[in-house]
UniProtKB/TrEMBL annotation:
<keyword id="KW-0732">Signal</keyword>
<feature type="signal peptide">
    <location>
        <begin position="1"/>
        <end position="20"/>
    </location>
</feature>
<dbReference type="InterPro" id="IPR045670">
    <property type="entry name" value="DUF5916"/>
</dbReference>
<protein>
    <submittedName>
        <fullName>Carbohydrate binding family 9 domain-containing protein</fullName>
    </submittedName>
</protein>
<feature type="domain" description="DUF5916">
    <location>
        <begin position="237"/>
        <end position="822"/>
    </location>
</feature>
<dbReference type="Pfam" id="PF19313">
    <property type="entry name" value="DUF5916"/>
</dbReference>
Amino acid sequence: MKLGPVILTALICLSFVASAQKTPQRTLEAKRTNSTIKIDGLIKDSGWQDAAVMTNFVYFRPTTGAREEYANRTVAYMMYSDEGIYFGGFCYERTKDSIATQLTGTRDGFGTNDYIGIIFDTYNDNLNGFEYFVTPLGEQWDAKMNPPSIDGEMEDFSWNGVWKSGAVITDSGWSFEMFIPFSAIRFGKKEVQDWGFNVTRRRRKTEQQNTWNPIDPNINGFLTQEGLWKGISDIKPPMRLQFSPYFSVYANHFPANQQGFSNWTSRVNGGLDVKYGINQAFTLDATLIPDFGQVQSDNQVLNLTPFEVKYNEYRNFFTEGTELFSKGNLFYSRRIGGSPLHMYDFAVDSNEAVIKNPTESKLINATKISGRTQNGFGIGFLNAVTRAQYATIENTATKQERQALTDPLTNYNVFVLDKTMKYNSSVSLVNTNVWRSGKDYDANVTAALFELNDKKNTYNLGGKLATSNRFGLLPDGSTETGFSHELHFSKTSGQFNFSLSQERTDAKFTSDDMGYFTNNNFLNHYLWVHYTWNKPKNWYNRINVNFNSNISILSKKIEPVNEKYQSAGININANAQTKKLWFFGAFMGYNFLQNDFYEPRQQGWYFKRGAQVVTEAWVESNESKKYSFFIDALFRKSINFYNQFGFDIAVGQEYRVNNKLSFSNQLNLLPRFNNVGYTYISGSSNINFARRKVNTIENILSTTYSFSNKMGITFRARHYLSTVDNKEFFILQKNGELTANAGYLPAANQNANFFNIDMVYTWQFAPGSFLNVVWKNATQYYTNEVERSYFKNFRNTISSDNNNNLSIKVIYFLDYLSVRKQLHGNKTEHK
């Protein structure tokens, strides 16, 4: 008997019992004003009498559906003019001490703050939103809410609009005002419009969160439960033309621990970012002569896996407003300006030395166009060009230099079409393309995606079909073509939810040229089951329980291996929030025997791993307190497999001295005992493995001091240490097992240290305009001799050659309409 259909039927039947009912939609009539409001947070201007009023907010956390207490009530006002939207109100409190405040000194710095925010769904499609938040100390957040994926709705906090806000704390709470110009939001050009919207307020000391239009957390989607702002008339999308010229100065000292001016270098940069509204729907962003030298340092690690390390993107051009480009998970922006294609693929004679080999390709320029029409048709286009890179090689005898091409002139392109439909559904087409000059191969990936929801927003069916082509890759100059697909069916609303999915790629598919891609040739199946109790009772506010299972096999056997099975596992985890606002959680999992086709680093080989038991527990204290902490401890133990076991221990803590100064520290300990894995031995023709002790320590210290809600200093220091101490060597056999290799080679040991400091002073001296002063220090220390003392490693690291970099950058925001208005006003005064 086949159990799959029976289990699926049972899940669907059970889910009908647990389905949630959608709450009625509240409506607010749009009110227009001709008054000018001074945005100072005081709500004193008489013009506020023109506004529509919102009261009777409803909690969705922790007690869903409860009315807010009178002493903590919220009163909000909203109206619009020819120029933009006014939003203001009062957040009442019993005392000032009930208000949670913390200055972060940076834009979109969350901290431990109360806040209130408004969310607009200008196309009224329940999929796309613009969010604007303000704290009691007047700090701003904003974000774009993007169409939900299988993982839920996504908020893009890297998106920044330019708008005004103010807030004032009083004895009875705090008041706020916002003015959102129409240039800071996207909408259609209908004569009369209805927008979806909602207002939300959060009180951090009690973790109460309410909204004007009620929200049920059992229903899929925040925007699907929005209110309606009705009858907005005669508003016109303004001309959107904005410039952000910048000027930067860099001074670099390497090695910084050596005296003398010869170790100093400097450079001066200047460039321009442009944002142009092509029409009411689409925006062009361009960066000319980009400068990303002030972005946060990467968290470098010693990589013992067969896969590339995926680093975070910190360059604002590639993080802001790129939600369309993330569809299908085919775009990894770090590919643009990343490591050269042939960084080490050039010959060097015995009498030559490499004196320069750039680790990144230089970005010449980048442009993106994105937006969505009134009928839900979205377009995203991104294009970037990197210049050719060369390594410089010197003849050690004659000192004559030559160059070797490591990366050709390359053009990167992403193109996305996305159409939203009824019931929060959508279909998309994504294409990525990499074109390289010269003889190197070109690459293209095309994918079609769909997400379909039923009328009640309870069930979802989605998937992806993709094909990849590498032109000129094969020895005869022909194209290698591969295919991939993914399909999932989910229940997304109610206390009980589940998801079944299948993912398959053939042995030729890859999206690695433009995306992050680890491996192909697999057929995977997943089951996720979730149940939540989110009605406070006894000791808890909410409890979540998840069950997961997965199995992976090869899509096609790899000769001469007569195996297709790769791995399988099951786990269950639970987490809860208590009435005291503490979080607890636990995890238990079992990974079955595994055939690892990637650890050997050669096709046609595999490594048999033992089964493994994993347990984990964590606790997180109430983060609204002056001192808060979390502890997460995970233990993994292999069964009858070289006595292999290990821990993952993370300890974090934060202390807020006051609302301006805070300290935090995170310590990660990852000891691995009798770890068995691939090891490189120079000159060996075998595939070598080792039983080893791997010890990794990561220590991060951060400090923030805010002078005001527009000025602050952040300091971040990170030390990473990882040692590999080999105890026993093996040679991998064709049957996936190991045979002992008597030779002990301590040279295969590793001792790697990375140390970075990022200290940033930022001052927003005008809306959208910033002065940034950044000090960065980077040091690496590597040896084949294992040093077990953490403090000796730290001393050796900071005494090694380190690179100090100091930079000053000024970014000035210019809005065409504001400049024209000022110039026109000056001319009028002169007359």
